[in-house]
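pasting input
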Amino acid sequence: MTQEIHGTVADGFETVREEFATFVARERPDYEGQLCAYVHGRKVVDLWAGDGADGGSLYGVFSSTKGAAHLVAALLVQDGTLELDRKVTYYWPEFGAEGKNGLTLRDLIAHRAGLIGLDAGFTAQELTDDRAVAERLADQRPFWRPGTAFGYHALVIGALTGEVVRRATGRTLQEVYEERVRAPYGLDFFLGLPESLEIRYRSVQPMAPTAQQQAVLDAAPSGPHTLASIAFNEHVPNPGSLADYANSRAVRAKGPASAGGVAAARGLAGMYAAAISEMDGRPPLLKPDTVAEVGQIHSVGYDLVARAHKSFGLGFQATADMWHPFLGAGAFGHSGAGGSQAFADPRSGLAYGYTRRRMAFPGGAAPENDRLARAAHTAALAMG
Amino acid sequence: MTQEIHGTVADGFETVREEFATFVARERPDYEGQLCAYVHGRKVVDLWAGDGADGGSLYGVFSSTKGAAHLVAALLVQDGTLELDRKVTYYWPEFGAEGKNGLTLRDLIAHRAGLIGLDAGFTAQELTDDRAVAERLADQRPFWRPGTAFGYHALVIGALTGEVVRRATGRTLQEVYEERVRAPYGLDFFLGLPESLEIRYRSVQPMAPTAQQQAVLDAAPSGPHTLASIAFNEHVPNPGSLADYANSRAVRAKGPASAGGVAAARGLAGMYAAAISEMDGRPPLLKPDTVAEVGQIHSVGYDLVARAHKSFGLGFQATADMWHPFLGAGAFGHSGAGGSQAFADPRSGLAYGYTRRRMAFPGGAAPENDRLARAAHTAALAMG
Amino acid sequence: MTQEIHGTVADGFETVREEFATFVARERPDYEGQLCAYVHGRKVVDLWAGDGADGGSLYGVFSSTKGAAHLVAALLVQDGTLELDRKVTYYWPEFGAEGKNGLTLRDLIAHRAGLIGLDAGFTAQELTDDRAVAERLADQRPFWRPGTAFGYHALVIGALTGEVVRRATGRTLQEVYEERVRAPYGLDFFLGLPESLEIRYRSVQPMAPTAQQQAVLDAAPSGPHTLASIAFNEHVPNPGSLADYANSRAVRAKGPASAGGVAAARGLAGMYAAAISEMDGRPPLLKPDTVAEVGQIHSVGYDLVARAHKSFGLGFQATADMWHPFLGAGAFGHSGAGGSQAFADPRSGLAYGYTRRRMAFPGGAAPENDRLARAAHTAALAMG
């Protein structure tokens, strides 16, 4: 039995609905997910499946959280509160240990610090607490020579950025996000989910790979002390699963800025729409110069953690190079381990958000984003 | 009916003729192209097909033009007129806008500036005029963080280099080229084709892909605002085709230094022969140190515009790494969108030029260059 | 008839023996090789085949030699005798010629200098003598722009490092190695094989590719003046083969630090065990900070000589990224053209050494190392 597709699309976005329906029809019967898009600040896609009649659920969005974290960084750079070419130690003196003295904020945010985890690993408790993560990382030797390479700081980039925010402003990144981004727009994208909204949270479901997919996963190189293991803190005794992480109330309550966010697709897309477009009578959060700077490619090529080609702007993925080659230069966003993805494409005015409940094979942005984002982009361009 | 192969080869270069004949026999019956090679300044290959009995036609050579442009740059570096490690702003103060203040001439010429095009695009008129292109680019923010990556400045590198030449010498790059390179050797390789020679110009024919090739072209990622689109100025309303560009008299008249050159294979090969070899009683244009420096690899790896592995020296392609792995270290040259290619291989003394009328699939140097250049190189080595 | 597997494994390492036996059974009947491993300084694997009853032979290990050379460098850095961020010219003023003035010792050791060989090539005599190699390279222009790329300095990195050692200490790298590393542990890993031990040397046998393998080798791009040819000194008249190099007494006598070493697997593994573990009542040769620094990835991505992805620490290969993705971050070692490989994996305490007599297809570490090293690593982890 095919799942019903709920929600609406604006005129001209019918193909997005069709792509979503085609995809859902091929998924497992218990599929649950949401798709939302804005163009120039106007909502043009608001679809969901398997999420009841109102589409009001919230999902763990893992690394899509990093988009919210680095929108905060972008705002503070825009304000002049943070200066990208200052050394990190200007804000955070303890950071200079173990040869990290010369590193700039720009390098740090662009995944160049080599500070992807701890030799000794983090406790589960520490991973709920950005400040504890940052404190421990200050003493860590980088895992590669700073300046020679980059790699995905999967579980810690938000804590590192957050500590700089805290030192510079006296407030947590989460507080700044809530005040300057989430609350003004009423976004369903939380870094710290209030207890009262827990009822809307739908727990992450583990990946359900086919036999063939499982074989691919099993064949992937792995080891308990690889850079990837350290980056995902899998080198500790009894590491928790990613699903367990998102499904922990302690995580959701604090909203760690690397991967602890909770959102609906509307919130994801809404945040990126607010970043680049006039919305709700407010000017865009980011000025054109800031948009250009955060989307400017800063790290591109072989990612030492992912062992594959990746592209980053300032804390954001360079979505056009890394995921969707049809997007315009300067598109910026982030995907999440569960399958979620969100981005802004400033040249078309498109803001896109997608979330799903069950973790998608093979990890990272779910493959369905390719066709969904392309359809949305094509329709956005046709709007002119 | 197989096309006749015209022209001559020196003793020992019979295999080059055979390769050319084999290739032409498989091409469309209307194939038209020329192949020329020198070794240590002596012409050893002079072949053509479909170009009448004398082989005197001139073709649009697109980016092979960049070789002429950067031979001028090399000469001025050799003179001491240009210094590679000076900042571009030393020569061209207005260039420093939008975070480009620190960029050196070396970085600029090595496709590292990130200044591949304009957010707003160029008019067709501007693209005929290197000075207009340069003036507009001075105000453009780079498309990636300077120093972190490189990408092919397809339509603009010649204008950027040219503006530095103009500021440093008071003359256009085209004037310097004509005076110091083209005229002394009587080369059929023009940056600015005199009206009187128009009769020899054979208009570029558009690519004629097979159905299978068309499918490959259609499947390639594309979008109207990608880095590649911007680099090829395809993000403007009604962008012209590359063929139309070369076929415009306005372009040919001015000879924009990125892609507006017109040449015969004899001119292409002759220019590279003059660069590295004694010829016509003249010493090589470039001294060994200059040859080594322009061919030294400056940018290598993932090209953000091409989204593929590329290798550049100082304005020239590092032909051995980028195209022909059998060539010697330090081989330098350039290919063009129509299918043309030209290079010097200093370690064997080979200078090579190829041009064809119809644009070749899939774009860039035509595939036939692989076997033609290999045959020429093997024969050159055997000459000793 | 299947070859007999000699030697012993500790409890828990039976799978290593099984993997070795499985491999040997599929090899040519004249296969001859050795496998040895330590965990936390205790020998746990000591196997051989085709090497008589005692396994006492010594083999040419080619570039595995570089591991010994750079253990010396690591010790001198640890002592403070060498400082990685000093310019090479601080130790070796003549090195500054031809634009190499700004290069640091760190860059030099990390294969970033672009000084892979000589335009004119080395004589066979010079290649036996690190000091002669270094002297000639001092005058060579780099083959790429220093700082923009890296490439494997196959035949010369040991001479370059060695010259810095000699200038800083007044003694040859080989002397320091003998005194501080080889002799104290009685290691069967020689940089300079005494005449009296020649009786134990088994000459390198040339590769014996199958027809299919030969086709692969023939199809590989090659030319007499490529970067790879220059790096392997194949651009001179009558270049000797690698096998001939190792089989020359003149080479073995001097033990050039790039590729002239002679070893048994016990010596290879023993050296890496001594580097990271307490052994024979002695503390580890390298302190944890030094271990972390030499294994820290310094050069990663496209190797201009190999024309493939490679990863280097400080003179060592970054074995986890370059060869065995299951190893821990910071694993460091080196492989050799004959098929040998040796490394330390500090996070599991594993030290590994393998050598074989006949050169393995396709060159570099022999493919059998993949399964052998994985089995040893898995067993080492299980030891806890």
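fyi The mean pLDDT of chain C is 95.
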